[in-house]
Automatic annotation (TrEMBL):
Ranges of compositional bias, category Basic and acidic residues: 108-120
Presence of the UniProt keyword Cytoplasm in the record: yes
Entry protein name: Uncharacterized protein
Localization per Swiss-Prot or TrEMBL: Cytoplasm, Cytoskeleton, Microtubule organizing center, Centrosome
A GO CC term assigned to this protein in UniProt: centrosome
GO biological process, one term: signal transduction
Keyword terms of this UniProt record: Coiled coil, Cytoplasm, Cytoskeleton
Transmembrane segments: none
UniProt GO molecular function: molecular adaptor activity
Region (Disordered), start-end ranges: 108-128
Principal location class: cytoplasm
Length: 128
């Protein structure tokens, strides 16, 4: 296996890990939103607070992973294999899609949290 193939496989593994984390977060967000539809501030349970805190931590980790390019993505200017360029472009597009999905998940979590706490909706994250 060539060095470039190893780098590409590593990038694919990292992307799959992020995709799995996003699926995990999405499932928890859906569960949390279903649980909080009929709740008010008076019966907001500690376990839900812990779930929100856990989701926030996972989202922060995902955001960090998505915003910092892996070392394997930084390449020399001599590397000009057209197939690898196409693969890299596809990976970048997928990364962008995942970043947008993460921003949407953060926004939905902030809205659900605000609704549950009966507060005005305010974006809880700086998405820049």
């Amino acid at each position: 296996m060539t060095r470039e193939t190893e780098k590409f496989n590593l990038q694919k593994q990292q992307l799959e890990k992020i995709r799995q984390q996003l699926l995990f977060v999405a499932a928890h967000l859906i569960e949390l939103m279903c649980k909080t539809v009929d709740k008010t501030v008076n019966n907001w349970h500690v376990s839900n607070d812990e779930a929100v805190a856990s989701l926030l931590q996972t989202l922060k980790e995902l955001k960090s992973d998505l915003l910092s390019p892996p070392a394997s993505q930084i390449r020399s200017t001599n590397d000009s294999d057209p197939v690898q360029e196409l693969e890299r472009a596809a990976w970048q597009q997928e990364r962008s899609i995942l970043q947008n999905a993460l921003k949407q998940a953060e926004s939905k979590l902030a809205k659900a949290t605000a609704e549950t706490e009966n507060k005005p909706t305010v974006e809880a994250f700086n998405l820049k």
